[in-house]
Amino acid sequence: MYRRMSEADSNDPDPEIDRINLRISRSFLDVVDETWRERGFNSRSEFIRYALRDSVNHPEGAGVWKDIAISEAQFDEGDGISSDDIKAKYGSDDE
């Protein structure tokens, strides 16, 4: 859920920018932070905007995001999907 911030309560110079809140586990946030740094993004926000744009522009990849969300929930419950299973499902050779 988000709320549109008025110019009066925003420090952002652009009134067209909305701020959202995102709740994710600390362990997943650690992975996100490591990833944006490794990939050369300037900030967490820049990386998340890129990931969201990519998901909207390439909806065929939405299954990956769904699997990530499911995996995060399973990980938090002590059960998860191995990286080998994910690589096999999506055909990735990356190490």
TrEMBL record:
Domain of life (superkingdom): Archaea
Cross-referenced InterPro entries: Arc_rbn_hlx_hlx (IPR013321), CopG (IPR002145), Ribbon_hlx_hlx (IPR010985)
Pfam hit, one: RHH_1
Gene Ontology terms: biological process: regulation of DNA-templated transcription
Ribbon-helix-helix protein CopG domain span: 19-54
Name of the protein in its database record: Putative transcriptional regulator, CopG family
Taxonomic path: Archaea, Methanobacteriati, Methanobacteriota, Stenosarchaea group, Halobacteria
